[in-house]
Design a protein that fits this description.
The complex is a heterotrimer of chains A (about 290), B (about 325) and C (about 325). Chain A has about 290 residues and is an all-alpha fold. In chain A, about 75% of the residues lie in helices and about 0% in strands. Chain A is globular. Chain B is built from eleven helices and twelve strands. In chain B, strand 4 and strand 5 form a beta hairpin. In chain B, helix 3 crosses helix 4. Chain C has 14 helices and two strands; from the N terminus they run ααααββαααααααααα. Chain C has a two-stranded antiparallel ribbon with strand order 1-2. Chain C is globular. The mean pLDDT of chain C is about 85. Classes of the chains: A mainly alpha (about 290), B alpha/beta (about 325), C mainly alpha (about 325). Chains B and C meet through helix 2 of B and helix 9 and helix 10 of C.
Chain lengths: ~290, ~325, ~325
């Protein structure tokens, strides 16, 4: 199928970015890594079985054909746990990013468009959110409200993280407000709704998209951290819980053979973060043509 | 007389992604001791690059590809790193274009003076500041006011004068000034020119003045070099250039400068625009805009020829002009 | 002057909002936390529940049955008197716990922070100055790796490798509990010995970030006219790198450093928990996992206050350091 056959809009939003990412080696690797994790989270748990029987004679085994990543402290297969845990981990991160973005866009746009007292109050609130470090806040909330599922965890993770994005969106709105096409739209009598959703939002979206990955990365670090501290008791297959068990309960730190048990969630976390980071920098190139070599 | 500065066949190229850009194209030039040589040309003519070459400070991606620069009989382009460092400022100093940013914003003026002096020899703080104060007074600045200040605390004109003082600090043999008055208002311009004339007289300094403003040239220069598209087109004494120019570009420049008397509508700008140096036209670079262009001009690049005592022209049809 | 006053005002308002939010958060806890502690107290001392409950009310300093507004006023009054609350686990005032924990946190974190800042800054400066060294890709890769690794993973890895398995360094504590604290050499040696891993974990994790920040700042400074002008004046390369590029490039980083010093007072929860190092972060971790709301609240407020004011100081400091900047009104 020749390139000319693809309609322009589709070309610009899918094909061209893909080519740019493809050319940038780091970004392409990032895309592949993210793809693998996405596959693991969606299809994985359906394809890979989860055997939770405890077999003490099989604890902390080296990787083998039967157990590609070895076993944990009660003889369960590590690889299975990783695959099954990935769904919750990634879902939580995704939800957290979505909620954070939602709150940030709402507040940023309100502040930018309304101006005046509304703006001042919202910026004061944002200032509080930004100044006070967010992890201690999340620890307190987790302590006070027991969180049991990915959705609530996603909400918890987004409560104190929308500050930076809100401020950035507000600045963009402020500068866009002055531009002629908004004046033109108003002059044409287009409704505020139209202006917001058809003119302003699309201009803000590229930045939001890149930021989305940073938010996911932050959410994973935070959620795993909370689980590691024992503040969010989730299923034991969740990577964070695996680390928690490995460090505090399984005595895994003393057993060299347990390397794969605590190493696997660690490696997965690091890989995901790297993948997201590389891919996001590629997205940056898509959005900022000046960065392309 | 042996020239103080002698440039021969200098070629400077910029290695850009889009191709190689020749900023200076086989330039040859002599500056005699004690004279003020004005190098005239529009932006992009290569005069700044030429000046940087004299200090061997062409910023990357630029490179001196060919040529010879002799200063006081020293081969500048073959000096070692350390010799080059000592040569810079002590022999030749430069006042940059838009010199407002030429000073470190977090250091006081006095400290920057001391830094400069101590990089070249063992002078005490006191000695340096005394010399600096003397020079500051020469440019009509009050030392006690200026030395303890930070650069941003001074006005544009004051900073320009401080830069001039910095350049004179080590008693250089030659001073290069790149558009010394462009960023300033007309009144300050005149002021700076006065000061330059005074300095030249008191210190017997050799100066190379780069500018596109013919009126400045008229006020202060002894000889003039005209550059276009990286190539030297004409060289001569100031009267010769102003009253008997032999290159069509020079003629155009002089006619284009607005005069105080007469109608502004009389101004005759040179038609057309400067060439794209990535892809210059064959033959003489000026031919697309030249009223006297012939077929030969379109094919053969004219050489810089000596037509009189120190009088040089690069034009096939020079005898037709004037 | 007005600018400073305005900023102090905003800082105080922010602090007040935080105090209120903390109050609301902790006092709106589902269930009755006092009851839980009362039960524990009763079991331990063999009291009746009602008695224990009264004890706990006194210790905590509030009565959940009082109207919220009354509780709030008592709370604010207590704070203004400098009383940060009482810890239920340790049965002592939060202030006392702070006195015990603060020195350890400040010790480890200030050494870590300053080391990682200085090393990172020097690395960044050198990489930016010498444009094509072998060091550049190494540092960039190191930065990407440590950026992707959360700090608890680094700390955990160090604990596993050096303490648990190689047994080179101690697993936990600030010092060997068998020793008597004081200015004796065995004690000091033990303290240093126990501080190596926590400090290493922090420095390993954070140095690259400072290096990249400095590199970014330095590269933009390099494009300025005064760097080329300094070269034209024949100044020595090293002098230009340090005093012309370095001094200008480090300015934005100093603000970050000041803020980081303030955040430091909140303790490094992960590093301290993993190495069982009894600093503020460790106590805060204990408070949250064991639901000691008094301790949680007190430590959190202290952290928040420290962060708010270090932000304020950093703002003012920057305007002093860079002679070009005047505080925006």
């Amino acid at each position: 199928m020749s390139v000319a056959a693809i309609p322009v809009r589709l070309y610009r939003s899918i094909y061209e970015p893909f080519i740019i990412i493809r050319r940038n080696r780091r970004a392409f690797i990032g895309l592949i890594i993210l793809g693998i994790f996405a596959l693991m989270a969606t299809v994985g748990p359906e394809v890979v079985p989860l055997d939770t029987t405890q077999r003490f004679d099989k604890r902390f085994q080296w990787p083998s054909l039967e157990h590609p990543l070895g076993t944990d402290h009660v003889g369960r297969d590590t690889f299975q746990q990783i695959v099954h845990g990935s769904r919750d981990v990634l879902l939580t991160a995704f939800l957290a990013a979505v909620f954070t973005t939602g709150i940030a866009i709402t507040i940023g746009m309100l502040a930018g468009l309304q101006g005046g007292t509304v703006d001042a109050l919202l910026m004061l609130l944002t200032n509080v959110i930004l100044t006070v470090p967010n992890f201690p806040v999340m620890m307190i909330i987790a302590s006070v409200w027991k969180v049991k599922d990915p959705v609530s965890l996603g909400v918890l993770l987004s409560v104190w993280t929308w500050g930076g994005l809100a401020r950035a969106i507000r600045s963009q709105i402020l500068s866009l407000k002055e531009r002629e096409f908004i004046e033109a739209a108003r002059a044409l009598g287009l409704s505020t709704f139209h202006i917001v959703f058809r003119e302003l939002l699309p201009n803000v979206m590229p930045y939001v998209a890149i930021n989305f990955f940073s938010l996911m990365r932050g959410a994973i670090t935070a959620s795993v951290g909370l689980m590691f501290l024992g503040l969010v008791p989730f299923k034991s297959t969740n990577w964070g819980m695996m680390l928690n068990l490995a460090a505090w309960q399984a005595g895994a730190i003393y057993v060299p053979k347990a390397l794969f048990y605590f190493g696997s969630p660690m490696a997965c976390i690091i890989l995901f973060q790297l993948g997201a980071f590389f891919f996001a920098s590629g997205l940056d190139e898509v959005v900022n043509p000046r960065l392309r070599t | 007389m042996i020239p103080l500065l002698s440039i021969r066949d200098l070629v400077v190229e910029f290695d850009l992604a889009r191709g190689a850009l020749r900023a200076v194209n086989r330039a040859s030039l002599d500056v005699q001791p004690g004279e003020v040589m004005a190098v005239v040309g529009e932006s992009g003519s290569g005069k700044s690059t030429l000046a940087f070459s004299i200090l061997n400070l062409v910023p990357p991606p630029g490179k001196i590809v060919n040529g010879e620069i002799l200063f006081d009989s020293k081969d500048v382009l073959s000096l070692s790193e350390e010799e080059l460092r000592k040569y810079r400022w002590k022999e030749v100093a430069m006042v940059f274009q838009a010199a407002q940013n030429a000073m470190n914003p977090v250091m006081r003026i006095a400290d920057q003076m001391i830094d400069t002096a101590q990089a070249h020899g063992k002078l005490s703080r006191g000695e340096v500041l005394e010399k600096a104060s003397e020079l500051l007074r020469m440019v009509r600045l009050e030392p006690s006011q200026v030395l303890h200040s930070y650069p941003h605390e001074l006005s544009g004109g004051m900073r320009q004068r401080v830069i001039i003082v910095l350049s004179l600090l080590l008693d250089p043999k030659m001073l290069i000034l790149d558009e010394p008055t462009t960023a300033l208002d007309v009144v300050t311009q005149a002021y700076i020119l006065d000061i330059l004339a005074e300095i030249r007289q008191k210190l017997g300094l050799t100066m190379m003045l780069l500018t596109h403003d013919m009126s400045i040239v008229a006020k202060i220069a002894d000889r003039v070099t005209v550059m276009y598209a990286g190539k030297i087109m004409e060289v001569g004494r100031i009267e010769e250039i102003f009253y008997d120019a032999k290159h069509p570009y020079t003629v155009g420049l002089i006619n284009a400068a607005p005069s105080l008397v007469g109608d502004i509508a009389d101004k005759k700008p040179i038609p057309g625009s400067p060439p794209n140096l990535l892809n210059p036209p064959p033959g003489c670079p000026f031919h697309p805009r030249c009223a006297y262009a012939t077929d030969r001009c379109r094919e053969e690049e004219p050489e810089l020829k000596e037509i009189g005592d120190g009088r040089l022209v690069a034009c096939h049809n020079w005898w037709l002009i004037g | 002057m007005l600018a400073i006053v305005k900023r102090v005002g905003i800082a105080l308002i922010t602090l007040f909002i935080v105090m209120t939010l903390t109050f609301l958060l902790i006092h709106k806890v589902p269930g009755d936390p006092l009851y839980m502690w009362a039960v524990e107290l009763a079991q331990e001392y063999g009291m009746r529940i009602e008695e224990a409950y009264e004890e706990v009310k006194v210790m905590y300093g509030y009565d959940p049955n009082e109207p919220l507004s009354r509780q709030y006023i008592n709370y604010i009054k207590g704070l203004l008197r400098g009383n940060l609350g009482t810890s239920m686990i340790y049965r002592m005032s939060v202030n006392k716990i702070l006195v015990k924990a603060l020195p350890w946190t400040v010790f480890v974190l200030s050494v870590s922070l300053l080391t990682s800042f200085v090393v990172g800054m020097l690395m960044g400066m050198v990489i930016a100055w010498k444009r094509k060294t072998a060091l550049d890709p190494i540092v960039t890769a190191y930065a990407a790796f440590t950026g992707a690794t959360p700090d608890y993973i680094t700390a955990l890895a160090l604990l596993i490798i050096f303490a648990a398995n190689l047994k080179l360094l101690p697993m936990k504590g600030a010092y060997d509990s068998a020793l008597t604290p004081g200015f004796n050499w065995p004690f000091i040696k033990s303290v240093l010995h126990h501080a190596v891993l926590p400090i290493s974990a922090y420095v390993f994790e954070n140095t690259a970030a400072w290096a990249m920040a400095m590199k970014g700042s330095a590269v933009s400074v390099l494009g300025e006219d005064y760097i080329m002008a300094a070269r034209a004046r024949g100044l020595k390369e090293r002098r230009i790198m340090v005093f012309y590029m370095g001094r200008n490039a480090v300015l934005p980083l100093v603000t970050s450093l000041a803020i980081a010093l303030g955040v430091m007072l909140g303790g490094a929860t992960f590093i301290e928990t993993i190495f069982a190092y009894p600093g503020i972060g460790w106590f805060f971790g204990q408070a949250t996992t064991r639901m000691d709301f008094g301790l949680m609240q007190g430590l959190f407020l202290m952290t928040a206050a420290a962060t708010i004011f270090s932000n304020l100081l950093a703002d003012i400091l920057y305007s002093r350091l860079d002679p070009r900047i005047k505080l925006a009104e």
